[in-house]
Write a structure and sequence with these properties.
Blueprint: H1 2-15, H2 18-73, H3 76-87, H4 102-112, H5 116-127
Amino acid sequence: MNSRLHSRRLLKRIVYSKGAVFVLVVLTAFALKASWGAYQKMSESGQRAAVVREETHELAQEKDVLLEELARLETRRGIEEELRRKYSVTKEGEELVVIVDSEVEAYVEEESESSVLGEIWNAVVNFFR
C-alpha cells in the first residue's frame, strides 16, 4: 500500500509541476490557434459561397433573357426587327421619315444669329414671312 501511495504522490508531483503546466499551456495555445484558423476559413468560405450564389442567380437571369431573345430571333418577325434595327433596312415601297425637333431648329437659329451675316440673312428671311 505504501508503494501505491508513493506512486500517487509521484504522479501528482509530475502532473502539477511547472514543466507539465507549461506543456499543457503550450498545447492549449496550439489548439486554440488551430481552432481560430479553422473558424476564419469557415467564415471566409461562407462569404465566398454567398458571392457564388449571387453570381449564379445573376447568370440564371441573364440566361433567361438570352433564351427569350433567342426565341424572338427564331421567328421571321424577330429576324426582320433585328435587321431593321442594326442595318436600317427597308422593304420595297417603304419610305424614310425624319422627325426634326423644334429645339434643334431654335438652336440652329441662335447659332446663325451670332454673326453679322447671319443677322442680315435673318432680316431678309423675316421680311418675306
